[in-house]
Amino acid sequence: MSDQITDVVAYMNELGKQARAASRALAAASTGEKNNALLAIADDIDTTRDTLMDENRKDLEAGAAKGLDAALLDRLELTTARIDSMIEGLRQIAALPDPIGEIFDMNYRPTGIQVGRMRVPLGVAGIIYESRPNVTADAAALCLKSGNATVLRGGSEAFHSNQAIAASIHRGLEKAGLPAEAVQVVATTDRAAVGAMITMPEYVDVIIPRGGKGLIERISNDARVPVIKHLDGICHVYIDDQADIQKAFDVALNAKTQRYGTCNTMETLLVAEAVAEEALLMLAPAYMKKGVELRGCKRTCEIIEGCTAATDEDWDTEYLAPILSIRVVDDLDQAIEHINTHSSQHTESIITENITRARRFLQEADSSSVMVNASTRFADGFEYGLGAEIGISTDKFHARGPVGLEGLTSMKFIVLGDGHIRS
Amino acid sequence: MSDQITDVVAYMNELGKQARAASRALAAASTGEKNNALLAIADDIDTTRDTLMDENRKDLEAGAAKGLDAALLDRLELTTARIDSMIEGLRQIAALPDPIGEIFDMNYRPTGIQVGRMRVPLGVAGIIYESRPNVTADAAALCLKSGNATVLRGGSEAFHSNQAIAASIHRGLEKAGLPAEAVQVVATTDRAAVGAMITMPEYVDVIIPRGGKGLIERISNDARVPVIKHLDGICHVYIDDQADIQKAFDVALNAKTQRYGTCNTMETLLVAEAVAEEALLMLAPAYMKKGVELRGCKRTCEIIEGCTAATDEDWDTEYLAPILSIRVVDDLDQAIEHINTHSSQHTESIITENITRARRFLQEADSSSVMVNASTRFADGFEYGLGAEIGISTDKFHARGPVGLEGLTSMKFIVLGDGHIRS
């Protein structure tokens, strides 16, 4: 398949043109039509799951032959449970409220016109992701529900799996009377397809890259289209001197150890000097018992036996591993200063019983999620009630934090009059 | 002044660094502090208006010597009335509600955490604009109210006027206890300053260019920072076959002739075939009486005597002049198709008494403002009740349509718990 495409740029342009046309139809599609398509896709994946697993086996065999490591092969594999969860995801997205067409803030102006806003799709989304075939269905479903056409470019190792899922999506769309071009999966493994996709502002309205930091940085630098991106997750918990120490213990332990490899895991713990000894002497043994390596500032190392000295680099590192950097700070000011200097603007939490401190932290910690007395691990579209999540944005422009259906939409102004003219 | 700065990139980096630091203070500033600063700036401009007019005279004399045309010189001039209106603008912005810190959508989740959102500033805005000194005060005021630091780079012809306004702004900020670096006016006319400003994502969060299409396109292409931009205003009015013909006449005449040089002026009139003769025979003499040149499709030319044939280029042209292109279309479908092909996604209006047609037009016309029975000339931040306007965005990403204070903000998630951890 992929080798049949010789001119990748022309091919991508054609996909883009078709996506733009399909996006018009999707923008005008009713909620019922979109939901019918989502349910038909779910049913189609369910009834053709043997074919899907056969295609996935081709990818797994090619991957093993290529010497992919176990973690990559695991992500690539479509088990029965993963297919079930893909189907369930489609049905859940069908059940979510449709954001499109929502009208709000309608007010009469002194001139007599009535002005408000209407939520509309962005248009065409380009999704670039690693070799996880379930993302094909998830991302397509979120875009479809929010009225956006999509061009999906998954990792080349998942080529056959993605094409099989694309076939189910197309059959589902057609069954619901929507254009098959509303979701297009790039049918070439040529890397030039990515370069083309991110430089077609006439056909693509937003790029959502998912994957390693290197890939995302490259895409952001080269894109001529807005990017919803997520780079690091260097998250902090600050234990204030007016913290409830038991809450501090629970949250700081959970934020680090509930899972190590997620972007909302705490990487640096800040502790107010006044409670540093009490808090750290409780926490250190608990971390060590779980095998967490502790790297601390000078004061921390004085308190915790077995703590190694943190270097400057530690404060700017996303470990994604059982390692934690710890700094004792003078007070809230220094904690906020540390966060706004070293954070990746993902998620920060303060542990305090003092409402004035909590209010200041909420206002001044400049990150996409800011919490009081809660674990950073809650920073997630599902936990926030968005119903689903296409990514977490650490940017401030357009969407910030977990991005659900709303992040895939825009708002236009609508004006109703009765022959009103401007004088 | 300008010639004292030899290393423009280093200078802009310094401004950027100071702006970033000041933006932290502004984000934490209270509504009262920001309002006090705005009122103090207004008072300072009022009491130092003689100095300001002297500095403005220097610019006018230099401009005249350089041979600037009358229109440019007019825009450059700070008359007493314009200074009054600048002062009044500052006071109006002080009187607007503060968008920053607004908390909304707070809901309890099944886990017990409470999740909502808080409106926060974007951070640092870079404004690039033509030689209209009043923009210096307007743009600075909108950014200040929305908690953003600004770096302003006005047209070189207004150099002395802008520096005088900057001095008032700095005195006002200091009087209110806010850092003077919250608003910085670039003190060099070297064009390299623009190139530097739009490629400092570490210091600048958004670029807002105001000026000619060429400038805006260049900035958009070269920027490494998000841009809120406004290119063309190719606006349409569609007269449906179920229009009230008197309303159609009023709106179509007003949308074209109330002012010719504004971006929300209608450039193309679409008329349904069934009412084309009636509508155009009413409208044509009225347009001609006002000196509007009519360029029509074949059918239009059959109806209107003295109409010249429109070329393909006409449908994609923003005249900003007493010229109107007219096309007779079959029906609403063809009107929407024409608009979504040729519009610059600024503003479109349908004239109809039919609610089903109106609903379809509102949903399917893919522009930043979509109207029913109202003149496109209403597309404006003041008319919409935003209180002020920093520009009109024809993009879909982040801000769309007239951009007021809200478009200069972002939203972060806030989470309140009581020691909640994720299980």
Name the shape of chain A in a single word: globular
What is the name of the CATH topology of the largest domain in chain A? Answer: Aldehyde Dehydrogenase, Chain A, domain 1
CATH class of the largest domain in chain A: Alpha Beta
What CATH architecture of the largest domain in chain A would you give?
A: 3-Layer(aba) Sandwich
End-to-end span of chain A in angstroms? 62 Å
For the secondary structure, the number of strands of chain A is 16
Number of domains of chain A: 2
Helix content of chain A: 40-55%
Report Rg of chain A.
Answer: 24 Å
- Let me know the average pLDDT of chain A: 95
The biggest chain-chain interface is: A-B, 70 and 70 residues
Series of H and E elements of chain A: HHHHHEEEHEHEHEHEHEHEHEEHEHEEEE
Number of helices of chain A: 14
Strand order in space, largest sheet of chain A: 10-9-11-8-7-12-13
Largest sheet of chain A: 7 strands, parallel
The fourth-level CATH homologous superfamily of the largest domain in chain A is: Aldehyde Dehydrogenase, Chain A, domain 1
The stretches of 5 or more residues of chain A where confidence is low (pLDDT under 50) are none
Which structural class do you get from the secondary structure elements of chain A?
alpha/beta
Oligomer: homodimer
